[in-house]
Amino acid sequence: MDPRQACFACLALEPPNLFEAALWIAVEHEPHLPAAQALHAVDNLAHQVTAGLPLLEGDAERAQALLRRLSELGFAEDDDFPLQARAALLPQVLQRRRGQPLSLALIALELARREGIPLVGVNFPGRFLLRVPGADHLLDPTSGRRLYTRDCRDLLARHLGPQVELNASHLLTATAREMLQRLSRNLRQLHQAAGAPLAALKDAQRVLELGEPSVADHLARAELYRQLDCPQAERYDLERALLLSDDAAEQWQLRRRLEASALPKKALH
């Protein structure tokens, strides 16, 4: 079974084995860091976390304590610039104790599962967040800071602009597939920015396999195919993007690109 198949096998379990599935995504890119090694590392981390957790009542308090304990142990948001793919690859995040909010959240979710804390992910725009169902706040996975409605509005404005209003769709609980699709998008962007289109293409393909793709997902893969000089594959994704788009200006631009890609190349003399 290859890493992609192993990832989807973990997702097919009931309940899904989210953490191991995310590890197999990393193995696709770094086969020298096997999933078993990372699982051993998280076992050791779980012992360290448990040893330092205070005895608290209430799931919200326990969840915040777990995140603060991870912070005490050195886990923090990766502030490297430019950000590298290692910030989204769980074995490296476990080694370096630095990562993107989603990567740190995946580790916290696995530790919370082991502790019996009902922590869930929230696909908030621009920054992945956590929540205990029923709590009146969200949690920042990088620090454990509580985020109330006003904090969420401020965070949304920083990422999408002050004209976007906070609504219920921004606060939905993320499924395992949605979290891994977001992880794959993160990796696609990081690999592409690093000038690694073949690695980014693996992530772009996985994005489409994990759930409903967006116009942006097809356009991102089309750009990778353009870089790799695969015109037929590029055209396929442009056509899919056109079918999904409901923006008139975007549709016009896509038609122009498709028309241009259909023109025969001039012969050299």
TrEMBL record:
Belongs to the UPF0162 family. Residues 37-184 form the Protein SirB1 N-terminal domain. This is Regulator of sirC expression, contains transglutaminase-like and TPR domains. Pfam families: Transglut_core2. It comes from Pseudomonas panipatensis.
